[in-house]
Amino acid sequence: MNKGLLVLMTIASIAVAVYGWALLLVDGVLETTGMAHHLTEQPLPLYLHFIFGPLALAVGGFQFFPALRKAVPALHRWIGRTYVLACLLSAIGGFFLALNTAAGSVAMTGFLVLAVAWIVTTSFAYADARAGHFENHRRWMIRSFSLTFAAVTLRLYLPLSLGPLQLDFATAYPVIAFVSWVPNLMVAEWLLRRKKGIALPDSVAA
User: Fold this and answer.
1) In angstroms, what is the C-alpha Rg of the chain?
2) For 3, 84, 194, 206, which has the most beta carbons within 10 A of its beta carbon?
3) What pLDDT is attached to residue 27?
4) How far apart are CA 95 and CA 30, in angstroms?
5) Which residues 6+ apart lie within 8 Å of 142 measured at CB?
């Protein structure tokens, strides 16, 4: 992956992670998202999703920098463990939030499938790292982070849909529930098939 794109991806991830934490920490921000009802109806899934999802987003990009992996492999492993735990907890929270979404059955389906795919790809990545299958681990981590990055693409597509495209929220959001992550995963698969992903030395575990 081009280093400039990798840096841009990491910066965008950190920026959206900060925004995600602001949803909980800054009064009035959550109300702008249409998700405030979750705070009273199911606060635990909300907190799981918006505490640990941004954490996964903030740390995940650093795992793809070869220099960091080679220089401090122990840090790479600990960041990896943090990422895996954060993904799983956030995905569980997101699953239950999706079940109670007010955006309709299409949006619910999109986010439910995303949550399950996030759990599966992250779990496979961790299992392969533990087993010493580092090439498979690398491939599953790329898939996992492509789904984590849905938090970024969602926040790009939503204002684009409501602004320049002039779509109403009820029309745009169910579509975004799929296009925020399906194209990401397709790009990840394309990169993997080109065999030009981000190389992970066999000597480094997650």
Assistant:
1) 17
2) 206
3) 76
4) 19
5) 188, 191, 192, 197, 198
Spatial separation of the C-alpha atoms in residues 195 and 102, rounded to whole Å: 41
Q: Binning pLDDT at 50, 70 and 90, where does residue 206 land?
A: very low
Rounded-to-integer distance, Cα 109 and Cα 122, Å? 20
* Summary count for the chain: helices (H), strands (E): 10, 0
- Which residue has 């954490």 as its token pair? 55
Structure tokens at 120: 């599966």
The CA distances from residue 80 to 56, 118, 162, 174, 200, in Å, are 9, 15, 36, 32, 13
Q: What is the mean pLDDT of residues 140-154?
A: 96
pLDDT in tens, 16-26: 999 999 888 88
Other beta carbons within 10 Å of 147: 25
Separation in Å, CA 204 to CA 7, 62, 75, 143, 173: 21, 14, 11, 19, 40
